[in-house]
Amino acid sequence: MPLRRSIARFNRRVTNVFTLRLAGRAPGFGIVTHRGRRSGKLYRTPVNVFPRRDGYVIALTYGLDSDWVKNVLAAGECDLRTRGRNLHLTNPRVVHDERRGTIPGPVRVILGWLGVANFMELHLPHNGR
Question: What is the spatial distance between Cα 65 and Cα 24, in angstroms, rounded to a whole number?
Answer without folding.
Answer: 23
